[in-house]
Amino acid sequence: PPGPLQPHGLPLASCRSFSNNKIQVELDESSGVAMMKFKSPPVNSLSLEFLTEFSISLEKLENNRACRGVIITSAVPKIFSSGLDITEMCGKSVEHYGEFWRAVQEMWLRLYGSSMVTVAAVNGSSPAGGCLVALSCDYRIMAESPKFSIGLNEAQLGIVAPFWFKDTFVNVVGHRIAERSLQLGSLHPAPEALKLGIVDELVPEEKLMERAAAVMAQWLALPDHARQLTKTMMRKAVLDRLVAHREEDIKNFITFVSKESIQKSLRMYMEMLKKRK
Amino acid sequence: PPGPLQPHGLPLASCRSFSNNKIQVELDESSGVAMMKFKSPPVNSLSLEFLTEFSISLEKLENNRACRGVIITSAVPKIFSSGLDITEMCGKSVEHYGEFWRAVQEMWLRLYGSSMVTVAAVNGSSPAGGCLVALSCDYRIMAESPKFSIGLNEAQLGIVAPFWFKDTFVNVVGHRIAERSLQLGSLHPAPEALKLGIVDELVPEEKLMERAAAVMAQWLALPDHARQLTKTMMRKAVLDRLVAHREEDIKNFITFVSKESIQKSLRMYMEMLKKRK
Amino acid sequence: PPGPLQPHGLPLASCRSFSNNKIQVELDESSGVAMMKFKSPPVNSLSLEFLTEFSISLEKLENNRACRGVIITSAVPKIFSSGLDITEMCGKSVEHYGEFWRAVQEMWLRLYGSSMVTVAAVNGSSPAGGCLVALSCDYRIMAESPKFSIGLNEAQLGIVAPFWFKDTFVNVVGHRIAERSLQLGSLHPAPEALKLGIVDELVPEEKLMERAAAVMAQWLALPDHARQLTKTMMRKAVLDRLVAHREEDIKNFITFVSKESIQKSLRMYMEMLKKRK
User: Fold this and answer.
1) Domain assignment present for A3
2) How far is B268 from chain C (nearest CA, A)?
3) Is B174–C179 a contact, with Cβ atoms under 8 angstroms apart?
4) Which of chain B's residues have a Cβ under 8 Å away from the Cβ of A115?
5) Which of A138, A238, B15, C27 could pair covalently with C34 via S-S, beta carbons 3.0-4.6 A apart?
6) Do the domain assignments include residue A93?
7) Residue of chain C whose alpha carbon sits nearest to that of B222
8) What is the pLDDT of residues A63-78, one digit of tens each?
9) Each residue of B124-159: pLDDT tens digit?
10) pLDDT (tens digit, 9 = 90+) per residue, C27-46?
11) According to the lineage, what is the superkingdom (chains A, B, C) (predicted)?
């Protein structure tokens, strides 16, 4: 169906592109659908800069009445997003840790609470914070390759997913699977992720964007107002819980990440990553 | 097993029929099982009159010690119930809207909170409020025809299922499936409804009543008291939530349904239904 | 990986056995894994003595830094545990009932809240309280024989599973399955238990201990601290609920079990069990 502000037949004129550094956003005003592509090689880490740009992009689209839905995907081969950027949590000041964590919260509050339809087209691996981005969308389609995996694997690094990562995960897969997967810090290959309900469907990688557009059209066939109120009704309890405990959650993160034992294991992890390259 | 008040071998004498307009109720005192058949053509709409009769029938059976279980089904071919009667929500007074909504709440409070065993024999399509009736029973058996569908499709009409519809749905299918199905206003064909857990089993339509009786016998083999306390323990939180917010929920409904935009879309929907006939 | 306190190559010296009456505990300090075997024939009933020994054993292991995980299984053929010992609930004093119930609570608080990895190797039937023990572990492996069944079948005896049995069950299988299974007091044969999610996997009985050890090794590959905090985050709400209502829950049990009708049905059940032998 046509977007509310644009006549048909103007595909070129109706496509507006935001110029950003880390995320490419293209809004097709004729369909009302924005395409958001993570393009921060090598692994689309959620750095402070990336998160800030992500939140601002979401806010712009949210306030643009021509935009009704967003498809989130990656422009980097084989990776959707590797999650929080560990360099932001290593050897920085307490103020920096606080600013970084607030940006993580802000991104999630905007994405999980978005009134737009959000579809994740997961075209690569998606550990930790990358998995959170996918879990926060309305619908998840993943490229069917068993080489790609997804999961909240924080425990593998000796860190703990915060309660609102957990709440988001439980809402998607239920308590039993979330409990096991979080404790084991599991990264689930795509076929297993489908079986557990972490993603909603798998398609061959070359069909991913086509399928995402079709799913989006199905969701946009509904009147926005009723769909938005329904989404709010489903997600409000979990969103409100972070809003009510936001400062406390930031303090917890700062205390945790400032520990020498955690700094040490993060440094070791970063060095391991460097050697891998 | 024989009912507590009636000797065996008196099938005619033990069968008591209530004379109602919209719902036929027959209690077999020898088995303790009541059959409740919706007979309000063309589509068993939940009108104020229907809902009032439904609640009174449930109350009578609840207070009849000879009755331990109720099988709910339809006497109208191809439809279980089409849900709330839209004519009750269109062009009526604020007082009427309030009275109607209180009757919807009353029906659900009685059915979801019933101490009797309740089995839904879903022998036709069951959208919106019709789906709520089925979801509120202890067990759902559906005729296996893919022509019959079931779901809380309120969003399709531009309206929002109230929180206690949602709570009932989440208790049956979990958060992820409820969130998607409610946002899309999905009507699920019987085979899909089984897969999602919306109904507990499918049988060929001609075997539906036989299977419902067998399931009922299995549930009635348990001692009533322990089963009833267990049911209360499972459902109390969700029932209490409506009881605590009942007046507020009525006010919300009145405000919502009185909006000109909602009146307009309901009128359009009714005209579409008329043309279909 | 080796345990923190013992060098390699000393398998005999590193195996410490606690001498108990009802439960055999062997800690392999080289792996950090304790084996806990119920050996209270004929059916591993959870008597006051058994429960007290269970809680003390768990406490000892919890406080032993050499122990990181516990595998719980049975030394009695064909039965994991038959659940609460009915003789403790029959013809005893009010004081005794209170002491017994506090011991049931204590066992669950220690097991469900354990910071160790807990794996149930369910090598026989496991009704009622026996099922609770399995449900309270982190992971459940069951011998695949359909002769073995598991479930919270309290309703079959005319009694009601307390709210924290229910909460534990809902966390494992979700609301819909818990509601039906609890109301019917179902005992599920192993293959059905797997399908419903009551157990996590089935293996041939002769491979059970081998598989339990492999699963334990997988869980112990994670750093303890992050895993423990994650487990606490998942289970705290349900644990806190009993802690907040513990005395009230004991009073409820005493009132319930002191009723003449309940005493009568428990006596009848015990006589039935005696005749079976």
Assistant:
1) no
2) 37
3) no
4) none
5) C27
6) yes
7) C156
8) 999 999 999 999 999 9
9) 999 999 999 999 999 999 999 999 999 999 999 888
10) 999 999 999 999 999 999 99
11) Eukaryota
Residue A42 has pLDDT above 50, yes or no: yes
Whether A9 has a pLDDT exceeding 50, the answer reads no
Interchain contact C64–B (C-beta under 8 A): no
Q: Retrieve residue B131's tokens.
A: 């789906």
Alpha helices in A74-207 (DSSP H): 94-112, 128-135, 163-173, 175-184, 190-196
A226 lies within 8 A of chain B by CB: yes
Query: Would you tell me which residues 174-193 of chain A have a C-beta closer than 8 angstroms to some C-beta of chain B?
Result: 174
B219, B231, B233 member nearest C163 (Cβ): B233
Q: Which of A156, A175, A183 sits opposite C231 (nearest CB)?
A: A183
Distance CA A181, CA A169 (A): 10
- Within a domain: C151: yes
Nearest CA-CA distance, residue B145 and chain A, Å: 24
Give the closest-approach CA distance of B151 to chain A in angstroms.
Answer: 15
Q: Under DSSP, is residue C92 helix (H, G, I), strand (E, B) or coil?
A: coil
How many domains is chain A partitioned into structurally?
A: 1
State the pLDDT confidence band at C276, using cuts at 50, 70 and 90: confident
Which residues, in sequence order, are bridge partners of residue B201? Answer: B141
Instruction: Compare B17 and B154 and report the one with higher pLDDT.
Output: B154
User: pTM of the prediction?
Assistant: 0.93
| Domain containing residue B103: CATH number | 3.90.226.10
C14: DSSP letter: T
Query: Is there a domain that residue B5 lies in?
Result: no
pLDDT in tens, C52-95: 999 999 999 999 999 999 999 999 999 999 999 999 999 999 99
Give chains near B: 3+ CB pairs under 8 A.
Answer: A, C
d(CA A244, CA A260): 29
Q: Most C CBs within 10 Å: which of B234, B236, B238, as the mutation test of the C interface? A: B234
The residues that bridge with B27 in the sheet, in sequence order, are: B16, B34
Q: Is the pLDDT of residue A59 over 50?
A: yes
Inter-chain touch B226–C179, beta carbons under 8 Å: no
CA distances from C144 to A184, B265, C190, C191, C200 (A): 25, 56, 6, 7, 12
Residue A67 structure tokens:
């935009």
A-B interface: how many C-beta pairs under 8 angstroms?
A: 56
CA C123, CA C71: separation in Å to the nearest integer?
12
Report the alpha-carbon distance of residue C210 to residue C230 in Å, rounded.
Answer: 27
Q: Look up the domain containing A72 and give its range.
A: 15-219+227-276
Task: Determine whether the interchain pair B176/A197 forms a contact, defined as Cβ–Cβ distance below 8 Å.
Answer: yes
Q: What's the rounded Cα separation, in Å, for the pair B114 and B228? A: 9
Contacts of C173 in chain B (CB under 8 A): none
Residues of A in Cβ contact (< 8 Å) with C234:
166, 175, 178-179, 182-183
Burial of C77 (0-12, 13-18, 19+ CB in 10 A): exposed
In a mutational test of the C interface, the residue from B222, B228, B233, B236 whose CB has the highest number of chain C CBs within 10 Å is B233
Rounded Cα distance between B138 and B74, Å, is 17
Tokens encoding B181: 């199905």
